[in-house]
Amino acid sequence: MASAETAAEHERILREIESTDTNCIGPTLRSVYDGQEHGLFMDKLEGRIRNHDREIEKMCNHHFQGFVDSITELLKVRGEAQKLKVQKEEMRCRLQQRNIATTIDKLTHCLPGTNIILCILIQYYPALRTLEQLEESCLPQAGSYRFCTIMAENIPLLRTHIRDVSMSDLKDFLESIRKHSDKIGETAMKQFTLLGNIHSRICAAQHLHTYTSYTSVNKLTNNKMTINKNIWERRLGNESSQIVFRMCICFTQGARDTFENYYRKQRRKQARLVLQPHSNMHETLEGYRHYFNQIVGFFVVEDHILHTTQGLVNRAYVEELWELALSKTIAALRTHSSYCTDPDLILDLKNLIVLFADTLQGYGFPVNQLFDMLLEMRDQYGEILLKKWNQSFRQILDQDNYSPIPVASPEEYQRIACQFPFQDPELDKIPFPKKLPFSEFVPKVYSQLKEFIYACLKYSEDLHLSSTEIDDMIRKSTNLLLTRTLSHCLQYAIKKKNVGLAELVQIIINTTHLEQSCHYLEEFISNITNVPPDTINATKLYGTSTFKDARHAAEEEIYTNLNQKIDQFLQLADYDWTAAQGGAQASDYLSDLIAFLCSTFAVFTHLPGKVAQTACMSACKHLSTSLLQLLLEADVRQVSMGALQQFNVDVKECERFARAGPVPGFQGDTLLLAFIDLRQLLDLFTQWDWSTYLADYGRPTCKYLRVNPHTALALLEKMKDTSRKNNMFAQFRKNERDKQKLIDTVVKQLRNLIATNQA
């Protein structure tokens, strides 16, 4: 009975656990721990959990296929949604295009009605026709009455009055178009910008080529012409058309020359004012914009007068004005743009000039000279870019630590790989952290090269150039950046004061990697211009030669730097040239010098083998030459045999250094050849083997082939003076006398040998 009650109690508790909120389950669990048969309850709880797990598994199995099907359908919907998005964009662009065409059509249908209204508003034409009828038919038929005479006399006065009123209206009209010229030009250029943007969006929706052809621009201007006819009405109103019409009426009444001459004279004056730029126009883009708006507005008015009147202006007059305006505009732009030092302002100005030229071209004005001027400005833009990038390169080189880049994780490695195309299978095998062989300035310089190419590409857009011309322009500009700007900056980094050997070594490594990346730059330019790099007559980049020259300069600087360090150590040399006996160990200064060379050449392990070998051979040759000069310098007047023995010990230390092979790659005792001149000279003196030297001199197999008789004579003279000084009080000793005689004999023979060779 108790077992049944316990089981019922446990069942009740389990139902409460299943149905009760987790926040209120505390009392239920407490009753479990307070009651009996705690283990039995845990068994039932685990059984209940297993039942629920089986039910969950059955439900998941039942719905799994539906879940997979839903995911598949969702992926299909995503693709269809993308297609729908593209179709909606195309529909929106076509709708805008259709709206523009509808607007043009409606405006075209309104023009006849507008002309009728204008004709209705004309008041002077019936009056002039009535006066003409009165003068030619009515008055002659009426007879010779006094009132007829008075009327005939007043007819010229009425005509003059009408002409005066028309002239006054003409003056008001000229003043009005002068005031509104800026707004007319601004409206015309805005309309062209709007049409150009819509055209570009249509091309993008249809996946057209980035660079639209010149034919597309012409089609665009045909639509723009119809819309811009309304600028006249919106800015000047219908009254201006009435004034122009009344002037045409006056032409028929014998005042043609008066109105024509006056109009053209005043418009020429206005043209001179419009074409005169402000002195500070070059300071802001708005100054150029105002200048262009006035010019465009002026010629929009002239084009409208040309096409709506007969006789006031003609094509020859308008073309003459445009030639004058074109020459003055180009001269002004050349002058003011030359003051600009900001590449962004030059780029904005170029875009503004393109809009100015395309707008006027839509009215039939030739603008080829403007595009020719833009090509001239391209050179100025390039020079400004070079100056800007010169500062960028200098800053990068000055801030670089000239140490290999440490990479702690694959993310850091990938970040650098995105900036600079670097591949090294051996380095990839090394676990993180590791170091890249080059320093930070390599990816930074490469990124700056790409930014420069992008800047050149921006200027070439919309200049009606072919892809090949754009590619050629970018490559030539990039070559200037490489051969002039970057090359000079690298030379500056190499030649600046306090540059160490470690920095020079890193520069050689960096330029080697930049040289290897040049073909990636070639591919980058080809990708953005769509011109294959193997195109005939395509300009090749000079990056390889630029980085190679910089590397050679760094190598030469290493040789020079090493030699300077050697000279600094040699300045510490303190030989006792009159010592009676030499020491058994090398001089301190030379030991320090050898230690410095060993540590230095250990750093050269990352350099190309030939560079390290050349540096080592150059240092040894310079050391050998400097030691010989130290021995023969004029300040050293006397040299004893003991001093010569100490000097010989130092040279042997140099030979041990060369024999140890501080840089791998030398065959045999090749490096020892740097000290062979010193070795033969010292052997000749320490062994006193003059008979062999004098007997074999000049023969290819001579033991002392590298000993120059002038050098031997100079050193022997120093030893001769030492012998005389030391033997001043022992001149009667037979051995000393014999030694002195021997030296004198050798000196005499050397002089004869030298004289014979000179003869």
Unreliable spans: 109-122, 198-228, 237-243, 245-253, 727-732
The strand count comes to 2
Mean of pLDDT: 79
Written as H for each helix and E for each strand, in order along the chain, the element string is HHHHHHHHHHHHEHHEHHHHHHHHHHHH
Strand percent estimate: under 5%
CA gyration radius, whole angstroms: 49 Å
* SS class: mainly alpha
Q: How would a textbook summarize the main sheet?
A: 2 strands, antiparallel
Helix run count: 26
CA(first)-CA(last) distance: 143 Å
Outline type: flat
Please state how the strands of the largest beta sheet are arranged side by side: 1-2
Helix percent reads over 70%
InterPro entries: EXOC6/Sec15, EXOC6/Sec15_C, EXOC6/Sec15_C_dom1, EXOC6_Sec15_N, EXOC6PINT-1/Sec15/Tip20_C_dom2
Keywords: Coiled coil, Exocytosis, Transport
Family: Belongs to the SEC15 family.
Domain Exocyst complex component EXOC6/Sec15 N-terminal: 92-189
Describe the structure.
It is a single chain. The chain has helices spanning 2-19, 26-34, 38-121, 124-142, 146-205, 214-228, 231-236, 238-274, 285-308, 315-337, 343-361, 368-399, 410-419, 425-428, 441-460, 467-495, 501-516, 518-529, 543-570, 588-603, 609-632, 641-659, 676-686, 690-696, 709-726, 734-758; strands at 406-407, 434-435. The chain has a two-stranded antiparallel sheet. It has 759 residues and is mainly α. The longest helix is centred in the first third of the chain and has 84 residues, at 38-121.
